[in-house]
Amino acid sequence: MSTKPLKILVLVCSTRPGALGPAIGQWLVDTLMPRAAELGAELVPVALADLGLPFLDEEEHPSSGVYRHEHTRRWSALVDAADGFVAVTPEYNYGMPATLKNALDYLSREWAWKPIGFVSYGNTSAGTRSVQHAKQVVSTLRLVPLGATVAIRIADATEHGRVRPTAPLGAAAVRVLDELVRLAHALRPMREPAATGALPGPLPGSYTRRLHPDDAAAVTVLQRCCWVEEAIANGTLDLPALHESPEQVRGWLATWHTTGLWLDGRLLGMVRTRRIDTDWHVGRLAVVPDLRGHGLGRWLLNTAETAAEPDCRRIVLFTGAASHGNLDLYRGAGYQPVPSTGTDGTIQLAKAAPPTTAPASTTTTIIAAGY
After folding, report:
1. What pLDDT sits at residue 367?
2. What dotted CATH number matches 6-190?
3. How many other β-carbons are positioned within 10 Å of the β-carbon of residue 112?
4. pLDDT tens, 310-367?
5. Domain 207-352 indexed as CATH 2.40.50.140
6. At CA 200, angle to CA 41 and CA 292, rounded to 5?
7. Which pLDDT value is given to residue 340?
8. Residue 260 burial by Cβ neighbours in a 10 Å radius (0-12, 13-18, 19+)
9. CA-to-CA distance for 128 and 151, rounded, in angstroms?
10. Contact 79, 106 (CB under 8 A)
11. Cα–Cα distance between 291 and 329 in angstroms, integer?
12. Residue 1's pLDDT is what?
């Protein structure tokens, strides 16, 4: 799971002058702020009244993502950056306010696979019919509505235009946030490919993207799974990948270009590359133990090789002298042993970079485990 904080938009939906919505929105944010900090979530209040969205005025369909107007582009950026939403909505004539429906209709892809909770308010029904109406719409946009809600009956829970805080009301709000955060984490694999510009991977449903420091936890787990067998095969525990802390992993993720292969939120494999002088270095090629033998290591290795910069000539790998599976993979990919002065029990292998590259000298380093 990524350690990147979740961004939750608290949408105050009523735009009527003197509406109760802003006061309820403020109560909600104040009530949830301590719990949000514990859960690693950032609450961002957004009043639809401040967005300046006219009735939908884009010529192209929202699914096209082609927006002519600046107000649409601003709204798109806000929603796109969010991981989930809480809509603070009144009930107008058995339904949600037109302002909320309009704001939803402006966008398409930006909403997909994100959770949305509701804090409703009203008289007889406490706004619950507004929520039922909204759920039909948000589900069509592939938003995922929560089961937990907060329903505020104005006569019982407000006084002089403000929410009268009570323990049950606060507890209900926290339940909404807890469910929202859990669902936002669970849905992250569904929305990540579109959000990150990921590319298709070799397995059905898999994808690749660049790994960042926020992925350090997943990388740490992958390394420790993969390099245990390397340690056993080579008779040493003195392998950096076995001992690096998440903070140390964060450090090198910031300097290496590391490609991760993902499926349903699980990091299946990775390989890192960077250029040093005129050499192309490749490192930490790894595939989870239960998927070895499916060609993923060769696929990741090819990904690393084709990323070599044009004036690099060689690609050089290092692996353990007793890592026979790794050696078979590299020799099968055209690598040959080269003289090395290393005394750490590793073997250096090299091959020419792809012929499209210009003459130069490249060294690629792979500390590899699990293919």
Report:
1. 37
2. 3.40.50.360
3. 16
4. 888 889 888 888 888 888 888 888 998 888 655 577 888 888 887 654 433 333 333 3
5. no
6. 95
7. 67
8. buried
9. 7
10. no
11. 15
12. 47
- State how far the alpha carbon of 236 is from the alpha carbons of 42, 75, 127, 219, 319, in Å: 44, 55, 65, 21, 13
> What's the pLDDT score for residue 126?
93
- pLDDT for 365: 36
pTM summary value:
0.70
Q: Is 294 buried (19+), middle (13-18) or exposed (0-12) by CB count in 10 A?
A: middle
At residue 360, the pLDDT reads 39
What is the amino acid identity at position 168? P
What residues does CATH 3.40.50.360 cover in the chain? 6-190
Q: What is the mean pLDDT of each run of 10 residues along the chain (371 residues)?
A: 80 92 95 96 96 95 94 96 97 95 96 97 93 96 96 88 90 97 91 76 92 94 92 88 94 95 92 89 92 93 91 86 86 85 74 61 37 27
Sheet architecture: strand order including 84-90: 41-47, 6-12, 84-90, 115-122, 144-153
287's CB contacts (< 8 A; 6+ apart) are: 226, 261, 268, 269, 296, 297, 300, 370, 371
Euclidean distance between CA atoms 323 and 229, whole angstroms: 9
- pLDDT on residue 357: 40
- Token pair 């699914």: residue: 63
Q: 113, 142 in Cβ contact below 8 A?
A: yes
CB 351 within 8 A of CB 336: yes
